[in-house]
């Protein structure tokens, strides 16, 4: 990941817009895709689904090389998603 890309990206905008997009579409994916990860590119609104967040991000970066993505675990709130991420790295 390019450090300059992270520095120049408005992370709050990605979180806000990503949340809005997910709230509009989540019922199209939950419960059918519950537990999978979704990466959203907020400008194009492209969606990438995978078993893990790393896989979803890898798919997203292939199409949008210089972007930062909003990632959510389908059917879980942010605290549950972050706890899962923390536990899976231990």
Structural features, described:
The chain is an alpha+beta fold and 90 residues long. The chain has one domain (3-11, 30-88). The chain contains four helices and three strands; from the N terminus they run H-H-E-E-H-E-H. It has helices at 3-8, 11-29, 53-63, 78-88; strands at residues 37-41, 46-50, 70-73. A three-stranded antiparallel beta sheet has the order 2-1-3, with helices on both faces. The radius of gyration is 13 Å and the shape is globular.
Give the helix/strand layout.
Layout: H1 3-8, H2 11-29, E1 37-41, E2 46-50, H3 53-63, E3 70-73, H4 78-88
Antiparallel strand pairs: 1-2, 1-3
Total count of domains:
1
Q: Low-confidence parts, pLDDT < 50 over ≥5 residues? A: 82-86
Order of helices and strands: HHEEHEH
> Strands of the largest sheet, in order across it?
2-1-3
Oligomer: single chain
Which term fits the overall shape?
A: globular
Strand portion, in percent?
A: 15-25%
Question: Fraction of residues in helices?
Answer: 40-55%
Distance between the termini: 22 Å
Q: How many beta-strand segments? A: 3
- Distinct helical segment count: 4
Instruction: Tell me the radius of gyration.
Output: 13 Å
- Write down the overall mean pLDDT: 86
The biggest sheet, with number of strands, parallel, antiparallel or mixed sense and barrel status, is:
3 strands, antiparallel
Q: How would you classify the helix and strand content by structural class? A: alpha+beta
